[in-house]
Design a protein that fits this description.
2 copies of one chain form a homodimer. Chain A is built from 3 helices and 11 strands; from the N terminus they run H-E-E-E-E-E-E-E-H-E-E-E-H-E. By secondary structure, chain A is α+β, with helices and mostly antiparallel strands. Chain A is elongated. Chains A, B: This is Putative Nudix hydrolase, MutT family (Modular protein).
Amino acid sequence: MLSIGFIHTTGQALPEHTGGRRRPRAFASTGIDVMNFCSACGNPVSQKIPEGDNMVRFVCATCTVIHYHNPKIVAGCIPEWNDRILLCRRAIEPKSGLWTFPAGFMEIGESTEQAAIRETAEEAQAEVALTSLHSVLSLPHIGQVYLVFIGKMRTERFGAGTESLDVRLFHPSEIPWDQIAFTVVREALRRYVDDLAKGEMTLHVASIPGSLAKPRLEDDRS
Amino acid sequence: MLSIGFIHTTGQALPEHTGGRRRPRAFASTGIDVMNFCSACGNPVSQKIPEGDNMVRFVCATCTVIHYHNPKIVAGCIPEWNDRILLCRRAIEPKSGLWTFPAGFMEIGESTEQAAIRETAEEAQAEVALTSLHSVLSLPHIGQVYLVFIGKMRTERFGAGTESLDVRLFHPSEIPWDQIAFTVVREALRRYVDDLAKGEMTLHVASIPGSLAKPRLEDDRS
């Protein structure tokens, strides 16, 4: 469900029909989960730092529940067929018309691997056997972590799922770099292509540029 | 904030003072996020499969917002000091009195690496430089993914944070296997010790036993 998931990340987490009621102050610019009312008791929430905590949370003054919002996992797959990889042209906003590998929000009840396989089936109608986890890319400013796997396509069969306008095999030299939907997707693909050139796939753990994060592993110098 | 985070996983997501109001039906046994009322408009939510979706969600009949709940990331670290690793004895429920490596829920605004470093500082008062991501362990039945890093302690300094009763260095042969707090922690430590014996740290991507997940990577046979 890449479509709906991404709505969370683009400042549209609450649709217009939340109307004239009290709007939350935090995270409004990033689209990270916001709340007006307590999901436990239905009374208004406010934002404060709970006792013993050091971060601002949505807290219910009526029933005292503290509502935690945590980063979401986007599971993705770079599907390989011989010397080419499968990319999808997005049929949905944001970035409709631009290219990405299959990726979407992980669901409760599945593993990271199942999520990557499912998204590949949904968006590219392709069946993959995952071979490695290639990158773990944090996007601290929007509370997301991309887990990007590499998968071998079991057959040459693929097609456009409902969220894709087109799905095509690209040789690494043909990747449409100026038409990639998201920076994080471009960054993952760049590392993948670099690894191909070096002849060895390695795990990359990093944050994408423009994020708030600093520490990274010694082995990701890109 | 491991303490509060873990409350979400043990069926206590909604405290008793939600009182006599309508209780949610889904996820009640697992403690995965539940809601009674719409966080956007404050009216009651119900559970149904939205059009074009294939999973049951909390949906608001009044303002039509669909509320997605996704897995949470627990970032952890196995801190190394020479040939020993640092473990914490939990001061909080669940599993108070049992041992774990530092781990806790990732926060919005940080990277996975920052989360692991922060948890190590909070729970073990130790400063680490992360050297590798060691395991990605999904717990589908409770909607969590553990990202476990290995970190080198920068100094021998450590101590019990507010969530720990005790913090100690253990040689791998001394790990208190029958007093480990959680299965996922035991599974991560077991892989770490196996890798030590083989003389090579590798990345492990797997789901913990008892979970709903099946697919896994070829390179995690354990």
